[in-house]
Specification:
The structure is a homodimer.
Chain A lengths: L2 H12 L16 H19 L3 H6 L3 E2 L4 E2 L2 H12 L18 H15 L6 H14 L2 H12 L3 E3 L18 E4 L12 E12 L8 E9 L14 E7 L1 E3 L5 E5 L2 E6 L10 E6 L12 E6 L5 H7 L1 H29 L24 H33 L2 H37 L10 H8 L9 H11 L7 H18 L2 H24 L5 H4 L3 H28 L6 H18 L2 H10 L14
Parallel strand pairs in A: 3-6
Antiparallel strand pairs in A: 1-2, 4-5, 5-11, 5-12, 6-7, 7-12, 8-9, 10-11
């Protein structure tokens, strides 16, 4: 099935997103308006993004000492995306948005990720940045910065990491000092001068828009001039590349933000990734060195503000990984249907006098395609489920909203990590289906694989997600989040037990869930984080597979029910059931293997001496 | 441990290769001569290969319409390699060789794979090609072609695949027709004219040597002008790029072999990979179109001749994959020791006022390093074990030689496939250890990962290896090969049972072996190949993990014994024991998960309808 067909099935048949129109915020929406957005994005992605996906990989951004250049086609795609209104799709009508549910917005945005994840400057970053300001900025900051980002006039970044501090944000050393005696009286917010280096900044420098808005994490020194250790000392600032007035018009002053260099990457090459120097004096502004920035929220609350957006950012990363996987699935499915090679395996072997068959008829090629389908569609269902939870959190009844928020907390590490690992593996299988051709740059699959390798790294590495899950999420509120998730999983299992075709999977999922529960307790049995967390990544993997098995079983219940409806697309539904079966037969059994070291608090890695390597 | 330290341990302490000097063929060798070869290769690889590994990736071969250009440094490396004598290292003294044992030759050659797998035109291909002629060529063919390849005057290729026939060699359509009435009287061998296209030919065109020798698989049409279907119709020919006389001197005639184009690959970019047109008339020779080729061996025996070299070629691929993994392990170990980030996980969490620690002190980074060590050193031990079997096959007493040959047949699919999959995974972990830096081209690990992705494809894909293992090897001779392997594994288990530290692993290996045995029987219970082989790849994976667990247990027995010897390098030995423990705790449990679908003859993939995808 194409992505569109699968998305339609998941949105309408499984998640029933049409029912959202019963909520005041979405009252003007219905299936037609949702479909119109999906149609528009599908077409725009096909017209402007897919044709240049290889081009942006080949013609990397380059810096002439002054400006960063990207191919003109990428600029055109960025412009078309901004003009489509998708940057503000989920926003209020009054700020120019469409009040689209998050789940529909993400499903629609996914077309762009599939067509060209590095094309057009990654609109999601600008939306996310503007969302952050909508939540934590002052009224004027929202007006001047966020609205112009939603309108596509300004593009956004996220400036967290520094060359010496990636996973460990508590160690950032970018300093922010008050700018003049009147620093507290600037209408754009308390005004500071920032000095420091920010690393891995996507879209840190380009000519795609009139201005670039950098939200920057920095520390305000104490009275002794020292930085406060840890994350408590971190504040959030808006640092525009070009200064603006209170009407959002450029003042003509260039801020002291300079490109130190471009990172040359394995993939995602369409997006310039930069090292930025803030306040080194390359562009002195208003008479002195130091990048001018405006405080957002209160001092010391920078990380809290930034993490406000983290759940959605991590779902977006997971969905991007998923769509790269999906792109490879579609490409390899097409190849497998059209490439003749080999002959059927009959009881007496093969008959060389017979014509060759398309490789899709070989069981192992089907295995590779079915694994891709199972991983990518399973991941997609999880991402859309999470996006639906975001809508619930924002528009549901108070109890439902609170539950949705808690479930989201639980699922976010999985939504980020699982597709990053398994849709990457799907991309590897897409190469394998192509044989030698897949290893060449004449086919798109090698690029998907390279692009996707980023997703286990950025927005919190696999290791960080694992610590978040086992170290924080499953123990928060005395384990209430885990209990809530388990109750949702058990509800699906109970429904499955009443469906003969799926009851067996219900039992297997129940067993896996029980194993996860036991391993969680065993990991924390000594109460020592060092012991509990030593095998956090295998725990994350087992937990992720259990979650995806649950999602698949829930989707399969929907597909099984659909089979008896008139007008059903039987092949599509059978495909969902087969993909579910594949996951339970081929993948779920790995859960026990991963949990062994967790449940025994195995100390092989923890006690490994540096000298023994 | 560096590769050299590990290789020394495996060669001398584990495999006792010094004892080979008791055999007539190796009588002039001893540890000093072996070490001298290892030293020489280590130095040459460090001097000429490592420094240009990134260069050959960046400056891909290009074709000016006449010649293929590669960087001068790569040409120099090729020349230095040829001059080192390594091309003929394992050959008889009388043909200019060193009569080096295969196991030492492979361990020495591994330095080049680790330093720059795409540098210098892949000498292994030339050696392998010449070995083929030594085994199947006429005396003059050996003299004219093979000897000049060993000397580095000529370079070699292997021309098997065609654009429409990769895995399915029975479908090649390159034709060979007798060249003139006197075709059988050419001193260089029966002379034919070849016409057809050969795809994926490494080093198919270059200027690294005086001439290129192509061994080409082609079909001689029957009296009706038709090609014989299947592999029975395949013959082997030597097709030199430039014709030579019976003294091996160039005659000045260019043969009708033309470069149709270069393949642009994801990795292995230093090696020109080509599509060659044979006999299309671009370079008419001796008055007509058609590439002149000389039959090797008998008509119809081409594939048999070619497969004579396949075991060694597949061990070489496995070793290449291993060394790419090892290169990533060394790089990420170095990075992890030197990159500060984060703080220890104390009972009360982390203390941000403390200085940061090198990331190697985090349990999850140790996990990623230990996984690499466990996979790469385990794979290395298997490859050297297999190479030692080659020596046994060639120089052992008749019974030992026969057993070695049978064990090699059993182990070859694993030696080829296991490192291709798991040392690639190791490369992914090497990237992950580096974080964002690993995703840039400023560090070598992303290239290792790209390079290594080829190894699951060429020399028989994963799927082909799996069919070879479950479809042929485990059932050959009524299962004698499997029994022999099981008896070797059981011997190791028995020794482990007498060592308290390792007895537990012995039990676990015994259980895994029993599961493999049961699954093998269950797969074939209906006798229907279609059912038995539907899950051949999961079987291959489970079998591979069981073999590596056996190898690790055997290595661990050696390390455990070494601990009590005076002067032992305790850290190195503890490291081997920890890597063994890692494999048993983290990896071996996956065997059960893979075998489930095999033992149940699960039909999910086999019965998946094309319309359901």
């Amino acid at each position: 099935m194409s992505y569109r067909q699968t998305a339609d099935f998941l949105l309408y048949d499984w998640l029933h997103v049409e029912t959202l129109q019963q909520r005041a915020r979405f009252a003007e929406h219905n299936r037609e308006t949702f479909d119109a957005v999906l149609d528009m994005c599908e077409k725009l992605a096909a017209d402007k993004f897919a044709p240049v996906n290889r081009l942006v990989d080949t013609e990397e951004p380059w810096f002439d000492g002054e400006k960063v250049h990207v191919p003109e086609a990428s600029v055109a795609a960025a412009r078309a995306y901004a003009e489509s209104g998708m940057l503000a799709a989920a926003q209020d009508y009054e700020v120019g948005g469409m009040q689209l549910p998050c789940v529909v917005e993400m499903a629609a945005h996914a077309f762009f990720s599939k067509a060209g994840i590095g094309v057009g400057g990654a609109g999601m970053l600008t939306s996310g940045n503007a969302n952050l300001l909508m939540a934590h900025g002052s009224e004027l900051q929202r007006e001047v910065f966020a609205k112009n980002e939603f309108a596509g006039r300004f593009f956004g970044t996220m400036c967290l990491s520094e060359p010496q501090a990636g996973s460990s944000l508590s160690d950032i050393v970018t300093r922010a000092t008050p700018d003049g005696d009147d620093f507290e009286r600037d209408p754009l917010g308390p005004r500071y001068r920032l000095r420091g280096n920010k690393m891995w900044i996507s879209n840190g420098e380009h000519e795609l828009a009139e201005n670039i808005v950098h939200p920057v994490l920095a520390k305000i020194p104490g009275p002794d001039g020292k930085l406060v250790p840890g994350t408590r000392g971190i504040s959030l600032f808006i640092v525009p590349k070009k200064l603006v007035d209170t009407d959002g018009q450029l003042t003509g002053e260039r801020n002291d933000v300079a490109l130190a260099g471009l990172n040359h990457k394995l993939g995602y090459r369409g997006i310039p990734n930069t090292l930025l120097n803030f306040g080194e004096g390359k562009y002195p502004v208003r008479g002195s060195a130091g990048a001018i920035g405006y405080l957002v929220g209160k001092p010391g609350e920078g990380l809290r503000c930034m993490f406000h957006m983290m759940n959605e950012a991590r779902i977006a990363v997971g969905l991007g990984a998923t769509m790269l996987g999906y792109a490879g699935y579609e490409a390899s499915l097409d190849y497998a249907k059209n490439r003749p090679q080999g002959r059927p395996m009959g009881p007496g072997g093969k008959d060389a006098t017979q014509p060759q068959i398309p490789i899709i008829r070989h069981a192992d090629v089907r295995r590779m395609l079915l694994a891709q389908k199972s991983w990518c569609e399973g991941a997609l269902a999880l991402e859309l489920y999470c996006a639906r939870l975001v809508d619930e959190q924002h528009t549901g009844a108070p109890d439902d909203a609170a539950q949705a928020a808690m479930l989201l907390e639980m699922l976010t590490p999985i939504a980020k990590s699982w597709p990053s690992e398994w849709c990457l593996e799907a991309n590897s299988l897409a190469i394998q289906v192509h044989g030698g051709y897949g290893y060449t740059r004449d086919f798109p699959v090698e690029q998907y694989w390279r692009d996707n390798r980023l997703n286990m790294i950025h927005e919190g590495t696999h290791g960080i997600q694992a610590l978040d899950l086992l170290g924080r999420k499953v123990v928060m509120d005395g384990g209430k989040g885990l209990q809530l998730l388990a109750s949702r999983i058990n509800a699906t299992i109970e429904r499955a037990m009443r469906v003969p075709e799926l009851a067996g999977f219900g039992n297997e999922l129940a067993a896996a869930l029980a194993e996860v529960g036991r391993a969680t307790k065993a990991a924390w049995a000594t109460g020592n984080p060092e012991e509990a967390l030593a095998n956090a990544v295998p725990y994350l993997q087992a937990f992720g597979h259990t979650v995806i098995a649950w999602i698949w079983l829930d989707v399969a219940l929907c597909a099984q029910a659909g089979l008896s409806q008139s007008g059903a697309d039987e092949a599509a539904l059978r495909g969902k059931l087969a993909a579910c079966r594949f996951f339970f037969r081929h993948d779920l059994p790995k859960v026990a293997a991963w949990l062994r070291v967790v449940a025994s608090r195995d100390d092989t890695c923890r006690t490994m001496d540096e000298a023994w390597f």
